[in-house]
Amino acid sequence: MRALFSLLMLLVFLAPQLHAEPVVVPGAKDATDLPWASDGEANVPYVFHDPAHESRITGFEKDLVDALAQKMHRKARFIQNDWDGLIPGLSRDLYAMVVDGIEMTPEHKAAVLFSRPYYVTSERIILRKDETGLDTLEALKNHKVGTLKDTTSERMLHRLGGVTISSYEEETNAFSDLRNGRLDAILLDAPIALYYGAISDDMKLVGEPIGSMEYGIAFSQNNRALRDQVDAALGELIKDGTLHHILARWNLWTPLMANYTGDMSEPNIAPDEWNRYREAMASSTGSGWVFLARRYAGFLPLVGQGALMTLAVSGLAMIIAVGLGLLLALARHYGAAPLRFVAGVYVEIVRGTPLLIQVLFIFYGLPAFGIRLSPFVAGVLALGLNYAAYEAENYRAGLLSVPRGQMEAAIALNMTHFQALRLVIVPQAFRTVVPVMTNDFISLLKDSSLVSVITLTELSQTYVRLSSTYYDYFGTGLMVGAAYLLLGLPFVRLARMAERRLGRGMGGMTGHH
Amino acid sequence: MLQASGIAKSYGGNDVLRGLSLDVERGELISIIGPSGCGKSTFLRCLNFLEHPDAGSVRIEDVTLACQGSWSRANEAQAHRLRAHVGMVFQSFNLFPHRTVLENVMMAPIQVKRVAREQAQAIACELLEKVGLGAVKERYPDRLSGGQKQRAAIARALAMKPSVMLYDEPTSALDPELSEEVLSVMRALDEDGMTQIVVTHDMRFARAASDRVLYVEGGEVVESGDPDLMFADPKDARTRRFLRTLL
Lengths: 513, 247
Ligand SMILES: Nc1ncnc2c1ncn2[C@@H]1O[C@H](COP(=O)(O)OP(=O)(O)OP(=O)(O)O)[C@@H](O)[C@H]1O
Ligand SMILES: [Mg+2]
Prior knowledge:
The complex is a heterodimer. Chain A is an alpha/beta fold.
């Protein structure tokens, strides 16, 4: 996914910038609005869902943006987006800035405009509690070390050489592999190391902080005006100690930061947020039936919401797929030569390219032509257009299964071509088509998980969020899996009924005559 | 009442019909016979333009359609007018399997002629009664015997009140005793004054029931006339050879 992220960044910034609007903040509803984005899924302590109140967004970056907005007399508005979609969303004007621990590397600097650094940090080594040694970068040689894809720590390990590197998309996966022994150590940005490694009973932080790197706020390249305003505000936050205060509350003020800001003061600030998070995690780990039942019951509203979104996206997409698919099939079967050709090309292109690419293309690619769709519309459209191609092939097979004589009999009865199709051919084709359609709808339900890449929180996104917040892949997995099955079940039954109804009179199909 | 002249049709250089002509009087029953592949079906299908002839014209009642060159939208519109007077029955019945027998018969009058539903149903029931299917009209076609299917198909065509009925080997797919059910319906229609053109391999029926027999070979009408005369004493050597191989 991170490789995709880089690819998308490239794509999006190579695309022509059709608009330059320096005055209004892109994506803003009015002049006082400050829309910003981050990936709040399992992104502790940057931006994340408070484990004590699932719907509340928190994190030191959230506090930072709120402070910035206050200085700028604007109202911060948080927009959730997947990591891969964060930067492309900037150029789509979905929001004005991205704050998500983005390292100010030369590659990133080429793609986006950065503020001055708001945090300077380093890499830390995390081990299992029982492990000893391995407390320097050198010592990691000849060991299995986990890290995140496309990060400074990954590059450090590559430069070191002699290390078996496992690069993860989600830090939580790295931690579970460390626990179960697939890894000997993890090298990660200090904030993550602190919030995951130091909190768990079975892991520990070892050695000195290694190296240093900077996080910056990212803007679209034509939004210099806002960048400058934010830089000014950030400068004030540093000067008046607000940044120090925020970071100290999160237990993230370090000598590196003192060095960077020149702020050597040591005010007595309680690490409230750090403590809050530790307590929340301590109380969310427990065992026993009652505890688990309580916890899963608490997840139900979120899972329900995700299921509704999945159902809405899939249902609407299926309507498009059925309608357009039928048109395509009729065009290929009965249309004039040019129409047949166009329909054929459509089907081949859509079936020959990955759905993920189509989803991303419609959401992030079409704006280059002035077509801006909301995530929901883009998701429905992408899935619908994709499945229409498969439905078209399905219907074509159905149409071919109707004997030629049926059309001739209808024409001989002086029906028009259209009447013949509507009254005679399509209803018969439908019968052979329904079982395949049911299967297609079930796989559409599952494929709808792909729209999570364009910021829609449907079932699988809900799974990712819940499981990574609570380190519970098993229980939440069962819940979400059951939700998918429940969603699919009515359609299987509906299809059986339709099959029986349509099957009447069609010899052998029903067997109850 | 039906006049076809100079009907020609070729499939990729294969001249299937070489300018066939046929004049039919109202109330006539005409049988078309000939060896397999001689173009009988093609000719019949050209009469209601299920097949588009390369050349020739067909007049039925007051509608004339002359064909020359490629098939146009205007031709299709004219063919639509002409088909209003023509009913057709196929060897393989071609009933609509997803509709009951009654619905099969009602469908075209309601959809094409915009007949009110109750009226269409009354007509359909009467016709089904007439072809002896009053008891099975609520069944789906797959629950009928072959003979019943073909009689249903005849009723379906009659429901459009055609002035001429075309049959393409209506009994070839049926056992002899089932054939008889169908043939007797056709004889009854003849008695009522229906004009009918029948492509058939059933020489007994052709001889006994028709007013006139057409012998077709090589895409041409070789001989036509009174069935008894033709069967007893064919004028053309090709007709004689054909009839001899059959008897
Ligand atoms: N769509 C078509 N394309 C090419 N050739 C065709 C087509 N339809 C018919 N023919 C050819 O035209 C000739 C006449 O066919 P037709 O079906 O009219 O013969 P027929 O007299 O009805 O024969 P049968 O007694 O076997 O039904 C045959 O040689 C057949 O192969
Ligand atoms: Mg034939």
